[in-house]
Structure to design on (549 residues):
């Protein structure tokens, strides 16, 4: 690792250590689903805004990247959630996996500046969001 | 006529100078997660700030002391050093958050990652402090900050349910996620009652050579300026409640999400106006915080100080803002998440409020400094109540939020 990167990593670790230690506890399923829903909806809003020419491409690409990462982290938290029966957990992870995939497709479409390919990805995102909401309302990780 | 002009200019600069990254991001997070339920926190914080800013101006005009040099004179060097250390540490975090805010605005505008912007932004702030005058910094940055009024325009165009907004002025308990609710309330209070604002105001009153004839101007500027400023923070909350909440964006983990605040309402202009508002508001705040840290050090340690002096005439003062900017830039360069840095520094501000506010209240009640203009019971009671409430909420909610409780 280059010296500069090592110094940056060390500095970040030093500053973040107290926060990370305290926030290391596993999130409950409801919190993870809120994260997933929020990032999926953000990705959809960013995609729709890009389609309408309201936001620039570099921003949209970055926002979709952040959304993909945010959903992936929430998926990991969901896997560790202790308040979720195994079968329900599997079903929810399938939905969140679909959402992550849809965000990834949306990002690829934005990178190619292909508005036509973006629409189906956004439609899948909307369907995934509805599926998560249904799962929550039927007791999947609701508090 | 001159006084009327000063009031207008003072109010305008207060409006432009009110919004910074803390008040913007905490208000937006509150609106997205709890709709209008945390309007009361913005109002309570603003009420406390109006009292504190009025006191800081009155103190400078009557005693001809800045709050800092009076703190050292009245309580001694050891106590002053303790307050200095605590408040400065929190201010450095807030400075890092503001530099992060400007860098983020530049990232939105150019697509170049924010870490690359931290150093140029820090240098630009330093250069303005090094070369600029107090008037230019105070009025220039604040006048440019009027671009943040686009948030008010956006909130009005959204046609929110005003009755529900008004109902949020009364505190109510959340239906879930209570730890997050109280943590956000604390962060909003910390963002509104930032001690740097009233310390800076007091130093500015000395720089502008205020005397007792300015007491009326001071009351008008603090009351009207801070109230209009709070209107901008409230607009951000209303926008988030109307734009993010209904779309299911209730948890904001990144500025990439917050950047979409105005787009659904103002279209293409919304994105660029948001970036401009964020950048200008944070740049102005970074100037003020760096200056305020230098004022506090120079006034407390008895060095020459004054933004209108040349750096060679107040080298200690200039060295302090230079060092503060280096620390602020480093916080961004090492990759701290700007949103987390902002929200936690605001909550820490609330937790450390008694450290700066209680000794200030003692000064405001000291006849030797204030004579017949010392505080009344109402001012003391309002400020003490809000500061005590902020402190208790901070002590309880910060650990709960860190532990992910609810």
């Amino acid at each position: 690792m280059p010296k500069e990167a090592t110094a940056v990593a060390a500095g970040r670790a030093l500053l973040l250590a107290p926060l990370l230690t305290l926030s290391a506890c596993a999130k409950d399923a409801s919190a993870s689903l809120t994260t997933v829903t929020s990032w999926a909806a953000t990705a959809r809003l960013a995609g729709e805004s890009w389609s309408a020419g309201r936001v620039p491409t570099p921003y949209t690409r970055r926002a979709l990247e952040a959304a993909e990462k945010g959903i992936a982290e929430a998926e990991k938290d969901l896997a560790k959630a202790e308040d979720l029966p195994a079968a329900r957990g599997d079903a929810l992870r399938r939905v969140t996996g679909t959402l992550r995939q849809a965000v990834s497709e949306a990002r690829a479409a934005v990178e190619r500046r292909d508005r036509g390919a973006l629409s189906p990805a956004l439609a899948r995102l909307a369907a995934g969001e509805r599926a998560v909401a249904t799962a929550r309302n039927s007791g999947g990780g609701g508090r | 006529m001159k006084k009327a002009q000063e009031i207008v200019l003072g109010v305008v600069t207060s409006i432009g100078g009110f919004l910074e990254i803390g008040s913007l991001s905490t208000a937006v997070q509150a609106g997205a997660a709890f709709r209008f339920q945390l309007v009361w926190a913005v109002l309570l914080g603003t009420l406390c700030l109006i009292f504190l800013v009025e006191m800081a101006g009155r103190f400078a005009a009557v005693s001809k002391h800045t709050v800092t040099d009076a703190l050292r004179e009245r309580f001694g060097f050891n106590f002053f050093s303790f307050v200095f250390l605590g408040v400065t540490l929190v201010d450095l975090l807030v400075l890092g958050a503001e530099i992060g805010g400007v860098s983020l605005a530049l990232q939105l505008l150019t697509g170049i990652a924010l870490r690359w912007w931290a150093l140029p932004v820090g240098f630009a702030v330093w250069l303005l402090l090094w070369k600029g005058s107090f008037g230019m910094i105070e009025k220039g940055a604040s006048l440019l900050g009027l671009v943040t009024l686009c948030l008010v325009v956006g909130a009005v165009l959204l046609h929110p349910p005003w009755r529900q907004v008004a109902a949020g002025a009364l505190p109510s308990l959340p239906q879930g996620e209570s730890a997050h609710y109280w943590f956000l309330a604390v962060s909003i209070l910390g963002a509104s009652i930032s001690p740097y604002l009233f310390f800076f105001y007091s130093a500015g009153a000395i720089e502008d050579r205020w005397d007792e004839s300015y007491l009326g101007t001071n009351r008008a500027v603090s009351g009207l300026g801070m109230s209009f400023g709070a209107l901008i923070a409230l607009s951000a909350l209303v926008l988030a409640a109307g734009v993010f909440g209904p779309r299911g964006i209730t948890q904001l983990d990144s500025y990439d999400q917050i950047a979409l605040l105005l787009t659904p309402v103002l279209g293409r202009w919304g994105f660029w106006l948001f970036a401009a508002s964020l950048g200008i508001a944070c740049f102005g705040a970074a100037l003020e915080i760096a200056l305020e840290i230098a004022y506090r050090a120079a006034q407390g340690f008895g060095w020459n100080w004054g933004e209108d002096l040349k750096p060679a005439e107040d080298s200690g003062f200039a060295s302090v803002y230079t060092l503060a900017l280096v620390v602020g830039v480093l916080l961004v360069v090492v990759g701290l998440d700007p949103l987390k840095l902002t929200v936690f520094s605001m909550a820490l501000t609330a937790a450390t409020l008694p450290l700066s506010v209680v000794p200030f209240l003692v000064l405001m009640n000291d006849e030797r400094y204030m004579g017949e203009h010392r505080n009344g019971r109402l001012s003391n009671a309002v400020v003490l109540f809000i500061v005590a409430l902020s402190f208790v909420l901070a002590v309880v909610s910060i650990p709960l939020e860190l532990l992910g409780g609810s």
Chain A is about 80% helix and 0% strand. Residues 86-111 of chain A form the longest helix (26 residues). Chain A has a mean pLDDT of 79. Residues 106 and 120 of chain A are 9 Å apart (CA to CA).
